[in-house]
Amino acid sequence: MPQPTDIKLRTASRLLDVQFDDGSHFELPFEYLRVFSPSAEVKGHGGGEGVLQTGKQNVGITGVEPVGNYALRLLFDDGHNTGLYTWTLLHELGRDRSRNWARYLERCALAQKAAPR
């Protein structure tokens, strides 16, 4: 699996900029990273798509902590900090961003339609 060669937290543009040794380069928005957190709170404890996270458009990242030589812990300003973003996960989130985000927006639209008025 590709290993990161450079990771930059770009707070003004709300992006985590990650370059990998396979030549891939991803700019991952904070909101995207928050709603696709690998934590149990977001993933859920069973199968399926997990718990839909909404209202995270303005979420910030206040810190990045390395975890060994295999992951990062992102500290979000909404208090969320329990997911470990492995190098594999970060690469997959970058590679699959368009598809993941389209599905997320679809889930948000379905939830909005189902919400009582």
Biggest sheet details:
3 strands, antiparallel
Number of strands: 6
Domain count: 1
Supply the CATH class.
Alpha Beta
Number of helices: 4
* Unreliable stretches covering 5 or more consecutive residues: none
Please state the second-level CATH architecture: 2-Layer Sandwich
**Proportion of β residues?**
25-35%
Give the SSE string. EEEHHEEEHH
Outline type: globular
- Supply the helix-strand structural class: alpha+beta
Strand order of the largest sheet: 1-2-3
Spatial gap, N to C terminus: 47 Å
The CATH topology label is: NE0471 N-terminal domain-like
**Average pLDDT figure:** 94
Integer-rounded radius of gyration? 14 Å
What helical percentage do the residues reach? Answer: 25-40%
Describe the structure in your own words:
By secondary structure, this protein is of the alpha+beta class. The protein has a single domain, classed as 2-Layer Sandwich (NE0471 N-terminal domain-like), CATH 3.30.2020. It has four helices and six strands. The protein has helices at residues 30-35, 40-43, 87-95, 97-114, and strands spanning 4-10, 15-20, 25-29, 61-67, 71-76, 84-86. The strands form two sheets. It has a three-stranded antiparallel β-sheet. A three-stranded antiparallel β-sheet has the order 4-5-6. The model has no long low-confidence stretch (mean pLDDT 94).
